[in-house]
Amino acid sequence: MANIKFIREEREVIAADGANLRIKAIENRIDLYTMMGKMMNCGGYGQCGTCVVEITEGIEHLSPRTEVEHRKLKKKPENYRLACQVMVDGPVSVKTKP
Q1: What is the rounded CA–CA span in Å between residue 19 and residue 34?
Q2: pTM of this structure
Q3: Of 49, 69, 71, 95, which is the most buried if we count CB atoms within 10 A?
Q4: pLDDT tens figures, 83-97
Q5: End-to-end CA distance of the chain
Q6: Among residues of the chain, what percentage have pLDDT more than 70?
Q7: Which among 45, 52, 57 has a CA at the least distance from the CA of 75?
Q8: Which of 52, 54, 44, 50 is nearest to 94 (CA)?
Q9: Which residues contact 51 (CB under 8 A, 6 or more apart)?
């Protein structure tokens, strides 16, 4: 089981190993999107880049960056990820809307 801690929201979510970070956030009413992202998000296909999160702890428990992430986040730090592309396999701390 993976324990996902959402720092800004002061909430923790339990997820099965291999769970998608975006889906777990939405299921638990964690808001990933800024105002613009709410209007323009692609629904989790990695095309818009609006579900960016910052991983503050546990980056080793995430799936590797995808090609989509390499393109969309090329000017961002390595601990920035697209929630829609991330699979969680252990404890992780996440900062939404970095």
Answers
A1: 23
A2: 0.92
A3: 69
A4: 999 999 999 999 999
A5: 26
A6: 100
A7: 52
A8: 54
A9: 22, 32, 33, 37, 41, 44, 82, 83, 84
